[in-house]
Design brief:
Layout (H helix, E strand, L loop, with lengths): L11 H18 L3 H7 L4 H9 L18 H14 L6 H14 L2 H13 L4 E4 L15 E4 L5 E11 L6 E7 L9 E7 L5 E6 L10 E11 L12 H37 L1 E2 L2 E2 L4 H30 L4 H25 L10 H9 L9 H10 L2
Parallel strand pairs: 1-4
Antiparallel strand pairs: 2-3, 3-7, 4-5, 6-7, 8-9
Helix pairs in contact: 1-4, 4-7, 5-6, 5-7, 7-8, 7-9, 7-10, 8-9, 9-10, 9-11
Bound molecules: flavin-adenine dinucleotide (FAD).
The site of flavin-adenine dinucleotide has 20 residues, from strand 1, strand 3 and helix 11.
Length: 382
């Protein structure tokens, strides 16, 4: 197992930071997991605590309320949250929105939103997917029409939106122009207190129950002209393409960490559990399957480290992020499925972390862009 393996991009400062994040997960996230799953959302207090510790925007400058660290600090948070199986705490969306603002926002937009996002006082959502379109983002039908006074009127419906019930602000993908395809698409920052904004159902999912995933509606929702991210129309698709690799890299890093946790839990269990007069670890099948799993987990960690290294260097490209997303989430599915088997009936009981990891893992191959789309993106780069 990997407890003695230190990722090449880690150093002493990052080790200490990782320890603090792991304590946060152990003390704050793990004890409330079952409560959050029952209520289908994470308590706001957790957001504030994470903000206080600098976990939400670790690599955003302090001038904007961030922790002033590096991408490596952000990667530590992603890995530790993945390791803890923290699938419901949608801090990652705040991280992504922080980076949309940091990369494309006007100075006024950064000043207005980033400090609250960093502290966890502002919970965000990114609304791309619609009932009629998900993978094919160029097909979005939500519109943002400019009025004579310069304000935009947003109309449309979104679905499957992480943090939908909790969010205070939503980055909405909408059509501002009549051009078909990518050119007519813009991103708008919509304040959730706007009267035209409506939350629909909190959706009942197969897993990741502690997170809220919701429908959102925009009914003649009037937003100020300065709600347009970056201030120029028609940039939305390119802004999305610029940031989606980071979302995919986050999913990939989390997948590798989940596999490590699954292996550790399973090894501990098979050493303890007895059948036919001996511990399960003494059965040859257990030993061989877990040896295979260990090889996969080790290779996955090395792949995740490779992605993180490129991210830190500023050389993470879309193809590498997509490759990591599809490959690591598929290994995650296989590894956790094999691990569940060793727990027997207990592996199917949600009281056991391995069972929750199993139900939570499935969607990793769907969201962030389905894995088939990731393969398409990789193939284009060949
Ligand atoms: C728990 C959860 C959280 C989510 N959070 C968010 C969020 O915060 N914001 C947001 O905007 N969206 C979110 N989504 C939506 C998610 O990103 C979409 O579900 C995903 O992109 C797939 O879109 P779709 O569901 O419309 O499937 P479709 O686009 O209808 O695709 C269905 C399937 O068809 C196949 N397919 C589609 N196109 C191709 C192709 N070109 N080549 C080969 N196969 C293809 C794939 O297998 C795909 O899974 C979330 C979804 C879930 C389940």
């Amino acid at each position: 197992m990997l407890e003695n393996y230190r990722s090449p991009w880690m150093d002493e400062d990052l080790d200490a930071f990782a320890g603090a994040v792991r304590r946060f997960c152990k003390d704050i996230i793990e004890p409330s997991e079952m409560k959050w799953r029952a209520q289908h959302h994470v308590d706001r207090a957790v957001w504030l605590k994470a903000g206080e510790l600098g976990l939400i925007l670790p690599d955003v400058p302090e001038a904007y309320g961030g922790a002033g660290g590096t991408v490596a600090h952000a990667a530590v948070v992603m890995r530790e949250m993945g390791y803890a199986g923290s699938t419901g705490f949608g801090y990652g969306i705040n991280y992504l929105v922080g980076h949309y603002l940091g990369s494309y926002g006007t100075e006024a937009q950064k000043q207005r939103w980033l400090p609250g996002i960093a502290t966890g006082q502002i919970i965000t959502a990114v609304a791309m997917t619609e009932p009629g379109t998900g993978s094919d983002l160029q097909g979005v039908r939500t519109t943002a029409r400019k009025r004579a006074d310069g304000k935009y009127v947003v109309n449309g419906a979104k679905t499957f939106i992480t943090n939908g019930q909790m969010c205070d602000m939503v980055v909405v993908v909408a059509r501002t122009g009549d051009q078909q395809g990518a050119k007519g698409i813009s991103l708008l920052i919509v304040d959730a207190s706007n009267p035209g904004f409506r939350r629909g159902q909190c959706l009942d999912k197969v897993g990741q129950d502690s997170g809220d995933t919701s429908e959102l509606f925009f009914d003649d929702c009037v937003v100020e002209a300065d709600a347009l991210l970056g201030g120029a129309e028609g940039q939305g698709f390119f802004q999305l393409m610029g940031q989606l690799p980071y979302e995919r890299a986050m999913i990939a890093v989390g997948a590798a960490a989940q596999m490590e946790r699954a292996l550790e839990l399973t090894v501990a269990y098979v050493k303890e559990r007895k059948a036919f007069g001996k511990a399960l670890i003494e059965q040859q099948n257990t030993r061989f399957v877990l040896a295979d799993v260990n090889a996969t987990v080790t290779a996955s960690r090395a792949f995740a480290d490779h992605i993180i290294r490129h991210w830190i260097d500023g050389t993470l490209d879309s193809s590498l992020a997509s490759m990591g997303k599809f490959w690591l989430t598929e290994r995650q599915g296989e590894v956790i499925d094999k691990c569940v088997q060793f727990f027997g009936g207990y592996g199917y009981m949600l009281e056991y972390p391995i069972a929750r990891m199993y139900v939570d893992a499935r969607v990793q191959r769907i969201y962030g862009g389905a894995n088939e789309i990731q393969r398409e993106l990789v193939a284009r780069s060949l």
